[in-house]
Design brief:
Layout lengths: L5 H15 L16 E4 L2 E5 L12 H14 L7 H5 L2 H13 L7 E6 L2 H13 L7 E6 L4 H14 L2 E5 L5 H8 L5 E7 L11 H10 L3 E5 L14 H4 L7 E6 L9 E6 H10 L1 H4 L6 H15 L1 H20 L6 E2 L6 E7 L1 H13 L2 E2 L2 E2 L9 E6 L6 H22 L1
Parallel strand pairs: 2-12, 4-5, 4-6, 6-7, 7-8
Antiparallel strand pairs: 1-2, 3-9, 8-9, 10-11, 11-14, 13-14
Helix pairs in contact: 2-12, 4-12, 5-6, 5-10, 12-13, 13-15, 14-15
């Protein structure tokens, strides 16, 4: 075997450096379905860390629909959508998703993607290409998800678009920047629900700003779709918003319980992305069996069962807010199933996660660069499959673990 060459040495050294900083990530292998309890290395752990908010990832009706779709359409699509991969299952799903937003986006049309990452890359890079190079501005919330950040960076590199970051809790700087902006194309990009803090974007205010300064507003509602709104249609339903300048992104691997994502917007915007959205054009289409399964998932989200699951989630959130108290850890108030606990240091977050594991819980430590330096945390998420007793047992365990972490940190 040849000795280590330079690139390999660099990789080994930098991985070791991540380990020293307590920033090295590790995979854990599950051997059971995604649910409120999972098997990891033959141990059953209570999981409070997935994004399966409605508890649909292991729903028997959706699993049966997936199987039915595989029997009907096979297990692969064979090509990109624009070659031969666009199935009637994809078409039906896109029409159903457009109907979800029909009260919030005039004449909506939808594109389905295999991941939210691809959807965000396509939307941002494709839309910015409406302007000639150097004539576009992108305004991106500082705490946006990595896929939005990467989409903004790629769009800027491709088109020389000017990028401005803004604090979604303080919009004065955004307004000041837009007042001075003379470029003909402007795009404001924000998460709907910020994935690490669980707070909602001020979409009503952002839309008013977009209208005043003739900008598009792109909302990535990955953690709101299926959860927010009476029918689970997301943050636009929750805030009762309707506008033709909104580009709406929804994820289907979280509350919807399956896989994929979609862009929903005015027909002309979607047609443009079909023509110029490179990730869409050059990606093999998602297997149609998945689209078939998602039709069942959307049906559940809108029916009484979906409403009952959202009502139960609201009850869990209320219990957490009223009964979970800490002496040192910072609890961020959130009206969503995302409930962060800020511990500060990487060491404290890792210790707390290990103590939770010892107690039979799976809640990983979240560290930089996912969150800002000094704000390492436990990101606790609720599922409609958690019972009230499950949550109260977690509360008791966390209160005990907090004291252990405090004692060991001195």
């Amino acid at each position: 075997m040849s000795k280590s060459f330079n690139a390999l040495k660099l990789a080994e050294e930098q991985i070791a450096d991540l380990d020293l900083q307590l920033l090295k990530r590790k995979l854990r292998i599950t051997s059971s379905p995604c649910d409120s309890k999972v098997l990891i290395e033959e141990r059953e752990l209570k999981a409070f860390c997935s994004n399966d908010y409605l508890g649909l990832a292991n729903h028997p009706e959706i699993a049966n629909a997936w199987s039915e779709g595989a029997q009907k359409y096979g297990v692969g699509s064979g090509a990109s959508h624009l070659i031969s991969g666009h199935s009637i299952a994809h078409e039906l799903l896109e029409k159903r998703l457009a109907a979800f937003q029909s009260h919030h986006l005039p004449k909506p049309r939808t594109l389905f993607f295999s991941t939210g990452y691809l959807a965000n890359l396509t939307a941002i890079t494709g839309l910015v290409r409406l302007a000639s190079p150097g004539n576009a501005s992108i305004y991106s919330a500082k705490l946006n998800h990595a896929s939005l950040i990467d989409g903004v960076r790629l769009a800027s590199a491709q088109t020389n678009a000017v990028v401005t970051l803004f604090d979604h809790t303080q919009l004065d700087s955004l307004i000041d920047a837009l007042k001075k902006d003379t470029r003909p194309f402007k795009l404001i990009v924000t998460d709907g629900v910020f994935s690490m803090d669980g707070d909602l974007a001020p979409v009503t205010e952002l839309l008013a700003i977009a209208e005043q300064y003739d900008a598009l507003l792109m909302v990535d509602d990955a953690h709101g779709f299926g959860v927010l709104g009476k029918q689970g249609h997301g943050i636009l339903e929750q805030k009762n918003i309707c506008s033709d300048r909104i580009i709406y992104i929804g994820t289907l691997g979280k509350a919807a319980g399956v896989s994929g994502a979609f862009i929903c917007a005015q027909d002309s915007f979607i047609e443009w992305l079909i023509q110029k959205g490179r990730p869409y054009i050059y990606s093999t289409a998602t297997p149609p069996a998945i689209a078939h399964a998602l039709l069942k998932s959307l049906e559940i989200i809108e029916t009484d069962e979906g409403k009952e699951r959202r009502t139960h989630l609201d009850k869990l959130i209320d219990i957490w807010q009223k009964e979970m108290h800490f002496s040192a850890w910072k609890k961020i108030s959130s009206s969503t199933p995302i409930q962060p606990l800020i511990l500060g240091s990487n060491a404290n977050a890792l210790l707390a996660a290990q103590l939770l594991d010892d107690a039979g819980y799976w809640i990983p430590a979240i560290r930089p660069p996912t969150v800002p330096v000094g704000s390492a945390r436990l990101r606790i998420t609720f599922s409609a499959n958690h019972s009230e007793d499950d949550l109260r047992a977690l509360i008791n365990t966390l209160q005990s673990i907090e004291q252990q972490v405090i004692e060991k940190s001195f």
